[in-house]
Amino acid sequence: MKKHILSISFLLGASALFAQDLTSKKGEPILPEADDWAISMNADPIFEFIGNAFNGNTKNNAANTNWLSASHTIVGKRFINEKTAYRVMLRIGFVNQTFKNMVANDAEFGTVFNFPDKQGQVEDKYRHSNMNLCIGAGKEWRKGKTRLQGYYGADLMIWMGSSKDKFTYGNQMSPTSNASAGGGSTTTMPTTTVWFTNPDSANFGMPDSVGARTSRLMQNKSGMTFGIGVRGFIGVEYFVFPKIAIGAEYGLGLGYQMTGKGRTEVQTQGGSPLQVANVDYEVAGSSKFGFDTDMNQGKIFGFSNAGTASLKITFHF
Q1: In the list 68, 173, 223, 248, which could disulfide-bond 260, CB 3.0-4.6 Å?
Q2: pLDDT at 181
Q3: Which residues pair with 293 in a beta bridge?
């Protein structure tokens, strides 16, 4: 009986010793250590690639709860010790896009052309620019003595953004419509491109329609958006390889966002005698306040949510 007890005690002791030996066969530590740095990224594309590699469905989707990808935010860490880390979040985005479309040249309307000559074209142009900036800092505490690690903490975030649309047209708008003897003309209704201007639309930057217009958009400038938020989080990671972990994170956030007044400029006609002028319109600002889990917070704050939850992969070095 004593032999059995001693044998069982030895096996339990050996198992416990093996469980605490968190190093690879090459002697590499598996868990993060003091002064380690880490960077997290969305793991969904990895799982999609693996899934597509083993079946014929090229549209195979990974399990997904939309973290990091929705906000395009980089998340990094620096470990104070093996159980505590500082977190930083950063998104810096500046975009300038130009879209062009060719339309009929109104100045040649009515001109007789001999084939293969045809009416000329002029260029309409749409320039879109936006700026998104999100920065944050936080602290993380970890639990667990095996490859499976839990963690929790809090982040403080601030963000700002703005956008601007500017339009130029090849055909000029005139207060009078006159056809010249040579076929040239000026018109109060120039041929004009109307664009899809919603960046979230699949048709963004494409012509919506082309036709004669008595008024047309020249510029649309949003007010500056500014927000601040605090977010508590909890997550879990499993270290599949030394210093490489797969995990998921969820949080509860409180935030406030405000957008200042914007401005819209429209080219239009009016007065007696008829005149053409660019008229400015003020666009009202807005504000938002939210307290919710990450998934709903993303809908409240749009681009500015610096973290909602999902599968992620973290590299430590």
Answers
A1: 223
A2: 45
A3: 252
Cα–Cα distance measured from residue 73 to residue 67, given in angstroms and rounded to the nearest whole number = 9
CB atoms within 10 A of CB 314: 22
Q: pLDDT at residue 2 above 90?
A: no
At 236, which amino acid appears?
A: V
Distance CA 1, CA 134 (A): 67
Tokens of 227: 């927000």
Strand partners, 39: 76, 315
Q: What is the pLDDT of residue 1?
A: 45
Residue 173: which of 191, 194, 151 has the closest Cα?
Answer: 191
The 10s digit of each residue's pLDDT in 78-134 is: 999 999 999 998 888 899 999 999 999 988 887 788 889 888 999 999 999 999 888
| H-type alpha helices, the chain | 2-20, 44-53, 294-301
Q: How far apart are CA 212 and CA 5, in angstroms?
A: 95
Give yes or no for a contact between 155 and 142, defined as CB atoms under 8 angstroms apart: no
Of the candidates 270, 260, 250, the one whose C-alpha atom is nearest the C-alpha of residue 221 is: 260
What is the rounded distance in angstroms from the CA atom of residue 284 to the CA atom of residue 5?
Answer: 79
- Give me the sign of the Cα torsion angle 164, 168, 169, 172: positive
Q: pLDDT per residue over 166-202, tens digit each?
A: 999 999 998 887 655 444 566 789 999 999 999 889 9
Model-level pTM? 0.73
What is the biggest distance separating any 2 CA atoms in the chain, rounded to whole angstroms? 120
Give the span between the Cα atoms of 224 and 141, in whole angstroms: 35
DSSP E strand boundaries for the chain: 37-42, 74-81, 84-104, 121-143, 148-168, 178-179, 185-186, 191-195, 207-212, 216-221, 225-241, 244-259, 262-270, 275-283, 286-293, 311-316
